[in-house]
């Protein structure tokens, strides 16, 4: 987290926006910052209170529970285990694959942890890349002026508008052995029956469903680019590709970064599609599926896993904001002169 | 001309990406169009299949009919969905919850994003990252703590307790806000401070400035995040199933469709018909807001 150094002149920083009469610099920078801070917190208060109650409180709750033992029968010994403080046992269960004092046997949930971690990142990487490329292209097509544009925009949105559970059912139906996809391609692939076909089925469904989200966000970002810039570039003799890399890409970057960031965070928590399409079979178990399966066996151990997921995703987001998005925070104000 | 009227005039402008110059060869353009049409077909195919399956007679579906057309379209599946007890009621509940979430989350996020871009204060970056926490936890793991939270909250504020639509609104606003804040932040930041100064010189009050200048300029961002919160609320099974446990009259639409999901014997026709019915309001909402997906900023900055 970068600390903000108050700038002296106040003109170089896009972030500072004095509202009061002191804008010309009559107030001291310090006092201005205090006044601004007060205003800012007034505007932020409702959001922060709501987030504290709905998100932060349950998260902290889950973290506390993750250090507790699940009460219940111990499978290894057959004795009833009281709850109570568990230390980091719930965490070593996942990370070091320890069930009690020994290694988790294959097939148990604990043993699937690293596989699920790999699968989750694999899905996230492939889907986000495909969705960004296709979404960008769709956004550029939709930004052109032509007849029936609003109809096209609305219809492109449809896949995203369908509930995920229904999308999953729809693709399950289509990817079935006697389903339409095998019929159309005259293939006889057991789509959900082995590792890579199952993974591709999930990736295809996810890309189909979420690309419109990317396209819509990028389309909104494209609205920030004035026509004049393109015209000027054209006059200067810039080609299509140059206009794209030199104008479109940099100016749409803040919106694009937000879209990619949120898509990545969402993809890392993918649940519905694999859960319904394959039930997590054939190495398609994601971390979220593992969490849900574990909730049925013991909530405290599941809390540890969801905390691990949270920390992992937090690290990804942190890296993202620090190295890629950090610029988006600072340069979110494209100067157009 | 005053900046206010300039913005208003320009907010109707369309920002367009110019098509490649015709001189570069129409063949290239034609190729791009062909790829576009191919992609549109691929995208549209599952939708076509959805509508087709909703229209096929139940006997054909059960027999595993995979013909790409049907000779006897029937509305039986739609009738089965609409005949679910209290369908109209569920529908209205979904509409109320979704619209409430859109209004509240957009308003709160707009205020928050103004604070995060226009003012400078300690912890700004920390707050931005904190807001993201909602996007980092497996949602499924939060349902149980949230269930107990809502049960407790209901004892002091009945409106947001279990079985109340209020509980859904509160939770969905919480999950929609982080995205909205991040999205709007970029748009608010892109409004040049010169416009604000000009509006002030023209004698606009703060409220007038926000309503007549800032809000129209960030409209594309507002559209994007209102569509986002509408869709995520409209389609939610998880929280609706968790919080609305006994009050039948407060159930939402996805739960009505859920009744057709059965372990061995899914009623595909009804599921597809239900999905078609559920998709229509989203489209209506999008078409209603999408004309705002054009910013006045492009023209307003040059002044």
Automatic annotation (TrEMBL), chain B:
The UniProt record lists the keyword Transmembrane helix: yes
Intracellular or extracellular location(s): Cell membrane
PROSITE patterns in the cross-refs: ABC_TM1
Transmembrane segments: 34-52, 90-115, 127-149, 169-188, 209-231, 268-289
Principal location class: membrane
Keyword check for Cell membrane: yes
Gene3D superfamilies xref list: MetI-like
Keyword annotations from UniProtKB, A to Z: Cell membrane, Membrane, Transmembrane, Transmembrane helix, Transport
Residue intervals of the ABC transmembrane type-1 domain: 91-289
Record-linked InterPro entries: BP-dep_ABC_trans_perm, MetI-like, MetI-like_sf
Region (Disordered), start-end ranges: 1-26
Family (UniProt): Belongs to the binding-protein-dependent transport system permease family.
Protein name per Swiss-Prot or TrEMBL: Carbohydrate ABC transporter permease
Native organism: Arthrobacter horti
